[in-house]
Structures are given as C-alpha cells and as structure tokens.
Amino acid sequence: MRKPTIKDVAARAGVSVGTVSRVLNGSTATSPGAREAVLAAARDLGYLPNAHARSLRSEHSGTIAVLVPDIRNPFFAELARVVEKAALDRGLATLLCNADESAEQFDRYVGVIRRQRVDGVAMIPISEAHRAIDSLVQDGIPVVFLDRHMRGSGIPSIVSDPDAGVCQAVDHLLACGHRRIGVITGPMASSAGRERYEAYCRAMANHRLPVDQELVANGDFQESSGERGAGLLIDRGASAIFASDSLMSMGALRTCHTRGLRIGVDIDLVGFDDLPVFTLTDPPLTVVDQPIQEIGDQGVEMLARRMAGELPDSRRLPTRLIVRASTRAGRAPAVAPASPIPSA
C-alpha cells in the first residue's frame, strides 16, 4: 500500500501544500478551520509529519544539523557550542554547517543535510534562503529557527525580544545626558536587524524624541560596517552610539580608538551581546545581552519535540542591559589624589 504524502493530506483537507506545511510545523499563521482540517486529514491517512518524504523509516540517525550564517561571528560560534552541548546531553551528535554569509553555500549545505538523513535541523536562517528551507519542509525534516525567524515560513522559532534591553539602553544613554544618540542597524531583510531598529525607534518615541535619520547608519552585521557606521555617526555629531550586533560593536570600538576618542568620556558606546571579549575591551563594553544559553537549550528542546511529532509554539526571550565603563554612568569616578600630610 502506498504511503501517504503531504500532497495527499492537502487534497484530503482541501488546502494547499504550503498550508499543510505551516500547520504541521506549528505555525499560528493559519486559520483554526484549516488547522483542524489538516490535522484530521493527517490522522485519517496515517501521515507522519516528521518522516522524510523520500522514505519513512523507523530508525533515527541520532544526528542533528546546526546551520549558522558565519561561524566567525562570536555570537553564532557560542550559540553553536550551546546547541552542540544540549544535543549531546540528549544523545545526539551534531553536524555543524557554516554558510559563510553566502546564500549559495547555505543552499549547498541544505543539500548535504537532505542527503545525510539527519533527524532534525536547528538553523539561523538567512533572508535569501526561502527556497532551500522550503525543500527541507517538503522533505518532512523537522526544522526550528534560532535567533531569527522568517515571516510566513510556518517554522517554529526561539529568538530574543530586543524591546526590554534596547529600551533600557536608550533610557540609560538619555540619563547620561545624551540627546544625539546614533544607531548602527543590521540589515532590514533580517528579522533581528529589523526588530532591533524598531525597538530603538520605540524607545526614542517613549521619550517623545524623534529618530534623526542623520544619526542612523545602515550596517550588515559585519565588523567593517560597524567601523564605517561609527565614523559616519561621529562625523555627524553623535555623542553616543548603539551598535546592534556584536561584530558591528567591535568595528565601532575600533573606529573610536583609531580616532583617539576616549570611550565613556568623549563618546559613549553600547554594543550588543554579552560576549566574554567585551569584558576585556578598553574600556569594558556596556551591552544589550540576549540569553544565548537559553536560546540554545530551549532550541534543542523545541527541536526534540518537533522530532517527536509535536507542534511547539514559537518563543521570545527577554533581553537586558549590562552597564560597564563604555558609558559614563558605568565608569568608576576618578580617585582624588591624597592630600599631603602637613609637616609637624
């Protein structure tokens, strides 16, 4: 007897294949009626949503894939380490795939993942990869997104919510006396870049302050764009800079040092991600911290549930501000020289 396919489920439910994929991947972007019809059709046909379309197998490989945009980014490297450890604790090996910021290489790795018969995939998606990601869904391979999400994909995600941390950062800089606060954004095609910039705009609006487009530098999550963006903002009179990514924060640090500016005195700087290196910079960097450990741990837990055929909801974890000496309120006051002891 022929095994049912995702197309059979779509035909039985009277919906599109894309709608079936979204429902079976836990998306909330479907109507209750469509969701009920798809789940009933899958149950009636005996369709297993976590089985590979190319073969329904009873044995698992015991391997998951982790696909990151750029392993040179210290945030992604640390997140991959957390995922690997959490997977190993569940008895799963990890296949690490580095797209090297290339859509072509991302697509090639998706092809490798499809051939390797992995049990599931945890990935940080890139905006140009819709078609490659759709191919994994069509194969029935369980997928979860980490750090970023893609609208309309139907794939569950676990990401940080930038609102609290960015709001605290803007509040902090305003309390330090700044009014010309520049921002280095990530790419707007990325959910992380877009949402962090939107959080900055909301934080400014909370104080009834307009966003001066002269103080917005568009970046691409690369160190070089942090260098260029910081230079542009300094030239335009920014007294404080918020860099919305770890690599761009490093670039902004370099520009300030190259120009001979005393960070935390001549200009204040807030970065993103509480990486160990940011406690060792000169001065230590005030940052918006997103919970890498929780994103990785909960991402693996979410993927395990997908591999078991469950449909977990997406999650957003809060961010927070950590104040260090790169902003004036975090700099320890200078110690006054001791008064000379009067001679007897």
Structure description:
The protein has 344 residues and is α/β, with parallel strands linked by helices. The chain folds into three domains: 1-49, Orthogonal Bundle (434 Repressor (Amino-terminal Domain)); 60-159 and 294-315, Rossmann fold (3-Layer(aba) Sandwich); 163-289, Rossmann fold (3-Layer(aba) Sandwich), CATH 3.40.50.2300. Helices cover 41% and strands 15% of the residues. It is built from eleven helices and twelve strands. The protein has a six-stranded parallel beta sheet, sandwiched between helices. Strands 7-6-8-9-10-12 form a six-stranded mixed beta sheet, sandwiched between helices.
Give the termini separation.
Answer: 108 Å
Task: State the total count of DSSP E strands.
Answer: 12
CATH architecture level-2 label of the largest domain? 3-Layer(aba) Sandwich
Listing every helix as H and every strand as E from the N terminus to the C terminus, the arrangement reads: HHHEHEHEHEEHEHEHEHEEHEE
Please name the fourth-level CATH homologous superfamily of the largest domain: Response regulator
Quaternary organization: single chain
Poorly predicted spans: 51-58, 333-344
Q: What would the CATH topology of the largest domain be?
A: Rossmann fold
- The spatial strand order of the largest sheet comes to 2-1-3-4-5-11
Look at the structure and give the mean pLDDT.
89
Number of helices: 11
Q: Structural class, from secondary structure content? A: alpha/beta
Helix content: 40-55%
Broad CATH class of the largest domain: Alpha Beta
What proportion of the residues form beta strands (DSSP E)? 15-25%
What is the domain tally? 3
Rg for CA atoms? 24 Å
